[in-house]
Design goal:
There is one protein chain. The protein is α/β, with parallel strands linked by helices and 462 residues long. It folds into three domains: 158 residues, no CATH class; 160 residues, 3-Layer(aba) Sandwich (Rossmann fold), CATH 3.40.50; 86 residues. It is built from 21 helices and five strands. The protein has a five-stranded parallel sheet with strand order 2-3-4-1-5, sandwiched between helices. The protein is globular. The protein starts with 6 loop residues before the first helix and ends in a 12-residue tail after the last helix. 30% of the residues are buried. This is Disease resistance RPP13-like protein 1. One of its GO terms (biological process) is defense response. Keywords: ATP-binding, Nucleotide-binding, Plant defense, Repeat.
Length: 462
């Protein structure tokens, strides 16, 4: 089995610091491996001391109580240094527990091979007592008991610290994907998109008098640049509400399913739960609802560029009234060319001043630094690193929310995360959120790949 080795041994100090949060977040995946070993304790029946079983059972119970707060700890570590230290200690302990369970499994396998050899040779001996009291077995037992007591003591300390840190247990399972978008927006927190909004307005409200069907308007831009927010502003405008007979908003995302998307569109239009499942029935019902109606449909966060999928999905839209519109937000120019019937609208980055307003709104709950002038220098430097991406500014602002600690702002500014060589380093906080919502097994894969040097090209599948 591939284990996580301490990052400091595998990376340079610079990259090691940058990826420490990744390694600690991967604990949720590593715990799953540990519990699978606890569930296979049949292989440990060779243990000579009943105290071993009692201690191991105690470990499992304590680790399960710790695992219940891992999500909360992983989320808080970026803002709480004590939680970060607690996670680092827990990471080291998890490796120790895994190593010890592996040693037990190795001993069990050795005993099994000896037993099979003895049986095959026709030598039926009472070998267990001999093994139990042999010098090598005595050394193994002493060594194991010492390690077990040490691990138990550390676990008890971590459980106590967990309570002192007030980490919360999960009330449910964390979603495996990022949260879906909705049509609602807080316009107070949106900056410098008035001109973009007017440009989209002109396209959406334009009636070219043609009978060629529904117009599809792509809005294109990198992740975190504000495509969804801009579309929300347009969607909720009173003029838009009055112009269209029907409106629907659907977050499509990467998991494209024609049946699911069709059903969601139907439910959004009717504001009713739909019990239909088959694509034919769903499209027939949707066609009925859209017939001769002027509608606006938003398909947010589209990744699928398969022309055939789009053709199937779009079948019911042809019955809509002239001047019906579909807005598609996407990062992909290929999606835009496949789906769009008009030239795509490319959304640009915010200016540095506007990005600063986004940052201060989420970090200080204000539009500027008038109440905290001592933080202005750090704030302005942080925002420059965001490269005009509002999601990056919002994310880092959220990390520093209500924190007036001079050192905390300095730590964010000097973080090695900014130095990771990607095309736009300011999106790193947004990528962190995306990483945080990955399922545990993908976190583990990500952390394994992250320990490889940047210049290394792997010629093999990992």
């Amino acid at each position: 089995m591939l284990k996580f080795l301490p990052i400091s041994f595998l990376l340079s100090q610079e990259v090691g610091k940058a990826m420490s949060a990744v390694a600690e977040a991967a604990l949720s995946a590593f715990f799953g491996v540990l519990f699978s070993k606890f569930d296979s304790l049949e292989s440990l029946k060779f243990a000579r001391e009943k105290q071993v079983y009692g201690e191991i059972n105690k470990w499992e119970k304590m680790l399960r109580s710790i695992r219940a707060v891992l999500d909360d700890a992983e989320e808080k570590q970026m803002k709480n240094g004590s939680v970060k230290i607690w996670l680092a200690k827990l990471q080291d302990l998890a490796y120790d527990v895994d190593d010890l369970l592996d040693e037990f499994a190795t001993e069990a396998l050795g005993h099994k091979l000896i037993q099979e050899h003895s049986a095959g040779a026709g030598k039926i001996h009472n070998w267990i007592p001999a093994l139990c009291f042999s010098p090598s077995a005595a050394i193994f037992n002493t060594k194991m008991l010492s390690k077990i007591k040490e691990i138990t003591a550390t676990l008890e300390e971590l459980v106590t610290q967990k309570m002192n840190l007030e980490l919360r247990e999960n009330v449910g399972v964390r979603p495996k994907r990022s949260l879906p978008t909705t049509s609602l927006v807080n316009e107070v927190h949106v900056y410098a998109r008035d001109n973009d909004k007017e440009a989209i307005f002109e396209i959406v409200l334009r009636n070219d008098g043609s009978d060629d069907g529904v117009s599809v308007i792509p809005i294109i831009g990198m992740g975190g640049i504000g495509k969804t927010t801009l579309t929300q502003l347009v969607y909720n405008d009173d003029d838009i509400k009055n112009y269209f007979d029907l409106k629907a908003w659907v977050c499509v995302s990467e998991d494209f399913d024609v049946v699911k998307v069709t059903k969601t569109i139907l439910q959004s239009i009717t504001s009713e739960t739909c019990d239909l499942n088959g694509l034919n029935l769903l499209q027939a019902k949707l066609k009925e609802k859209l017939s001769k109606k002027k509608f606006l449909l938003v398909l947010d966060d589209v990744w699928n560029d398969n022309y055939n999928d789009w053709t199937i999905l779009g079948s019911p839209f042809e019955v809509g009234a002239p001047a019906s519109k579909i807005i598609v937000t996407t990062r992909s120019h290929l999606v835009s060319s496949v789906m769009g019937t008009v030239p795509g609208f490319s959304l640009q980055e915010l200016s540095n001043d506007d990005c600063l307003s986004v940052f201060t709104q989420h970090a200080l709950g204000a539009r500027d630094f008038s109440r905290q002038p001592n933080l202005r220098e750090f704030g302005e430097e942080i925002v420059r690193k965001c490269n005009g991406l509002p999601l990056a500014a919002k994310t880092i602002g959220g990390l520093l929310w209500t924190s007036m600690d001079h050192d905390a702002w300095k730590d964010v500014l000097k973080s090695k995360l900014w130095d990771i060589p990607i095309e736009n380093s300011g999106i790193i906080p947004a990528l962190w959120l995306s990483y945080y919502h990955l399922p545990p097994h993908l976190k583990q894969c990500f952390a394994c790949c992250a320990i490889l040097p940047r210049i290394m090209n792997s010629g093999r599948r990992i």
